[in-house]
Amino acid sequence: MVKLAIVDDDSRLLESLRSHLENFDEIESVITSNSGLRFADQLSMMNAQQLPEVIIMDVSMGTVDEGIKATSIIKKQFPFIHIIMFTISDNDDLIFDAFKAGAMGYLLKNETPASILKAILDVKNGDAQMSPGVARKAINYLTKPAAPVEQSAEKLSPRELETINLVAKGYTYNQIAERLHISPATVKKHMTNIFSKLQVSNKVQAILKTEGFRSA
């Protein structure tokens, strides 16, 4: 069960998405807001039981990047909350900024409720999610700086490289644990170490930073 928040200034879309998603058994509760920055302030006044586990955050609200600014604020205060950016645009710069801010997903608004639910569940389990059309743009944009990438990837141990290689191929933490004959907790520990060594905040950034060091 997932405690969900949806933040979007399009009231019609907001209510439509809420009504669809709260009908899924996997969704425990849904809270809504029409302002990213205001919602970031509201979170600081909630108790632990009220906090959402996943937020669907519109990219552009009062300003073109309000959702990204709100994401950065929220992730600094609540790093355990997973955020999926939600937008009609696949602008390369905004994709880059969203992942830099700590987003774990980037979905276009034409996704079906079932696809959005899958992204919510995957992100809660630590998997980054993007609409197919966004994924290639993100990779093309984020792989431009190459020199520092190789230096940082050299810090990883063989086991850490093996782990991120499987992540890049789409394996879940549980599948990686079975394949490597270790516990899911150990996989998560490897990923924590990878994030720290590469100085990244999510799987997409880690995958891109190890390009060239991973096996095909």
Structure description:
The chain is of the alpha/beta class. Helix content is 52%, strand content 14%. It has helices at 11-21, 36-43, 66-77, 92-101, 113-124, 132-142, 147-153, 158-168, 173-180, 184-198, 203-209, and strands spanning 2-7, 27-33, 54-58, 82-87, 105-108, 129-130. Strands 2-1-3-4-5-6 form a 6-stranded parallel beta sheet, with helices on both faces. It is globular and about 50 Å long.
Largest sheet: 6 strands, parallel
**How are helices and strands ordered from N to C?**
EHEHEHEHEHEHHHHHH
Assembly context of the chains: single chain
Radius of gyration: 17 Å
Helix content: 40-55%
Number of helices: 11
Strand percentage = 5-15%
Mean pLDDT: 84
Distance between the termini: 36 Å
Q: State the secondary-structure class.
A: alpha/beta
From the spread of the alpha carbons, the general shape counts as globular
Number of separate strands = 6
Summarize the structure in short.
Helix content is 52%, strand content 14%.
List the helices and strands and how they pair.
Elements: E1 2-7, H1 11-21, E2 27-33, H2 36-43, E3 54-58, H3 66-77, E4 82-87, H4 92-101, E5 105-108, H5 113-124, E6 129-130, H6 132-142, H7 147-153, H8 158-168, H9 173-180, H10 184-198, H11 203-209
Parallel strand pairs: 1-2, 1-3, 3-4, 4-5, 5-6
Helix pairs in contact: 2-3, 3-4, 4-6, 8-10, 8-11, 9-10
Which features would summarize this protein structure in a list?
216 residues, 11 helices, single chain, 6 strands, 6-stranded parallel sheet, alpha/beta, 14% strand
